[in-house]
Input
Amino acid sequence: MFDEFTDGNDDIDLYLYRVGTGGALTLVGFSAGGTSAERIDIRAPAAGTYKLYAHGWQTDATNAVYTLFSWLVPGTAAGNMTVASSTSSATVGGTANVTVSWSGLTAGTKYLGRISYSDGSSEIGSTIVSVNP
Output
């Protein structure tokens, strides 16, 4: 969620549950900051049914209006983002300058992507990238 996509000075929090056997709910993520700028990232979510609760912790009225955004980042590259690094190899705990660029995105639309880091044989980390062209 984004503060600019509510109808006022609202603090709306998010709680994500996985629905289990018999309808039992298991909390899998939440975001409860002091504004409505909330985000829950779940890496490789298990297949199943989920319920998201938007909780109006503090809103400007009983009929708070907001827009909820969601993304499902695919496991394969869409081909519209490129990454260049100041180093050709990555090490856990190391640092490097990384430049990210993208093409073909619609202005005014919010996007989410992921950069993954590999040791040559397996992924050792990743970074979520928010793009607001």
